[in-house]
Specification:
352 residues; 3 domains; 62% helix; mainly alpha; disordered N terminus; DUF2985
C-alpha cells in the first residue's frame, strides 16, 4: 500500500469540516456546535477541531483528506481476520438473504400465530388448538421460525461482538471509543456511534443476550423436536423460557436503539441520516399528502386543508437533507452495492 505522510498544519479545521461533516455544520461556529453541552454536538465539534483528527497514524482519517496512510497502532492479525469475516458477511448476497429471511419470518410468524389461536380450518377435534394435522403444522412453523431467528443471530453476532468490545474498551489493540468514533478509532458520522457510550453498551448487551438465548432456544428445539415432546414437561419449560427471553431481548435492544437514534436525529436533522421512525413518519405524511391532493380537485377541500397542503409542501422543501460526503466504509468491499438504504452499522446489527 502506498503511504503518504500528513502534515497537521495543512489540514485546517475548515478543510476537515467541508470534507467530513455536512455543509450545515461546516458553516457553524464552535459556539453553535457546543451550545447546550449536547453529547452529539460536542463530539462532532471535537471531531472537527481536534488536532488528532488528522495525523499520519490513521488510515481512514487521512484518506478523507490526503489519501491512504497506515493505522497506528497497525491492524493486528486478529483485527485483520475480524475485518475479513465482517467483509464476507457484508456481501450483497447476505444482504439479500437478510431481506428474504425477514419476509419468511413475517409469513411463518403469521402462520404460527393463526395456528396458536386456533384460527384454522384443518381440523377441530377435540379442539381447534389441539388436533391433527394442526399440531404437526404448528410444530413445523415454530421450527422454521427458530431456524430463521438462529440464522439472523449467527450472522449478526460477529458485528454485535465487535461493537460491544469497541464501546466497552476491550479492543486489542485499544482503539479510541469516545462518542463519535468508530471501531477503528476514527471519526464517524454514522448515528450509531453518537449514541452515548453507556446506552450503547446496554443495547449491545441486549442484542448479545438475544443471540445467546436464541442459540439455547435452537438447542432445546433439537432436543425436543416433536410437538408432543415440546409440549410436555420438561420440554415445554425449556423451549418456552428461551423462546420468550430471546424475543424480549431482541425487542428491548431494537426499540432502545430506535429510540436513541430518533432522539439524536430529531435534535440534529441535517447532520444524520433519518432514523427508521422518521422514515415511517415521512412515509405516512407523504401518503396522506397524496391522498388529500387527489381528493381535493374531485370532492373539494376546506380552506384549512388547502392551507395544510401548502404548508406540508413548503415544509418538505425545507426538510430536504443537504448533500453529504460519505466517509469510506473500511469493512465494506468498495464495489459492492447495498441492498437497503440504511446505514451499514444499523443494518449489520440485524443481519441485513
Amino acid at each position: 500500500m502506498n503511504t503518504a505522510s500528513i502534515n497537521d498544519s495543512k489540514a485546517t479545521k475548515e478543510e476537515i469540516l467541508s470534507r467530513f461533516i455536512p455543509e450545515t455544520l461546516s458553516n457553524s461556529s464552535d459556539a453553535d456546535l457546543e451550545e447546550g453541552g449536547d453529547v452529539v454536538s460536542s463530539s462532532l465539534a471535537t471531531t472537527a477541531e481536534s488536532s488528532n483528527v488528522v495525523t499520519g497514524s490513521t488510515e481512514e482519517q487521512a484518506m478523507r483528506l490526503h489519501g491512504p496512510v497506515s493505522l497506528e497502532p497497525p491492524l493486528s492479525r486478529s483485527e485483520e481476520l475480524r475485518d475479513e469475516l465482517l467483509r464476507f458477511l457484508d456481501h450483497p448476497f447476505f444482504q439479500v438473504m437478510g431481506i428474504i429471511v425477514l419476509v419468511l419470518i413475517i409469513l411463518s410468524g403469521a402462520f404460527f400465530f393463526f395456528l396458536l389461536l386456533g384460527w384454522q380450518t384443518l381440523c377441530d377435534t377435540p379442539s381447534r388448538t389441539d388436533c391433527e394435522p394442526r399440531n404437526t403444522c404448528f410444530n413445523i412453523s415454530i421450527q422454521l421460525l427458530n431456524g430463521l431467528f438462529t440464522y439472523m443471530a449467527m450472522e449478526s453476532m460477529p458485528w454485535r461482538c465487535t461493537q460491544f468490545l469497541h464501546v466497552a474498551g476491550g479492543s486489542c489493540p485499544y482503539r479510541r471509543n469516545d462518542v463519535g468514533y468508530d471501531i477503528f478509532g476514527l471519526p464517524s458520522r454514522e448515528i450509531w456511534y453518537h449514541i452515548p457510550k453507556q446506552r450503547r453498551i446496554g443495547i449491545c448487551v441486549c442484542l448479545l443476550l438475544n443471540c445467546i438465548t436464541q442459540f439455547s432456544n435452537q438447542a432445546t428445539r433439537i432436543v425436543y423436536p416433536t410437538f408432543d415432546e415440546a409440549n410436555a414437561f420438561p420440554g415445554n419449560f425449556w423451549t418456552n423460557v428461551f423462546f420468550v427471553s430471546s424475543m424480549w431481548f431482541a425487542a428491548i435492544g431494537g426499540v432502545w436503539m430506535l429510540y436513541e437514534e430518533h432522539v439524536i436525529h430529531k435534535e440534529h436533522p441535517n447532520v444524520f441520516a433519518p432514523s427508521v421512525i422518521m422514515l415511517i413518519n415521512n412515509y405516512v405524511r407523504r401518503r396522506n399528502y397524496i391522498i388529500k391532493r387527489f381528493l381535493c380537485p374531485c370532492c373539494g377541500c376546506s380552506a384549512e386543508i388547502k392551507g395544510e397542503l401548502q404548508g406540508n409542501s413548503s415544509e418538505n422543501d425545507q426538510r430536504r437533507r443537504p448533500e453529504m460526503v460519505e466517509p469510506p466504509d473500511h469493512v465494506s468491499t468498495p464495489h459492492h452495492e447495498h441492498a437497503l438504504p440504511l446505514e451499514r452499522t444499523n443494518a449489520r446489527l440485524w443481519a441485513l
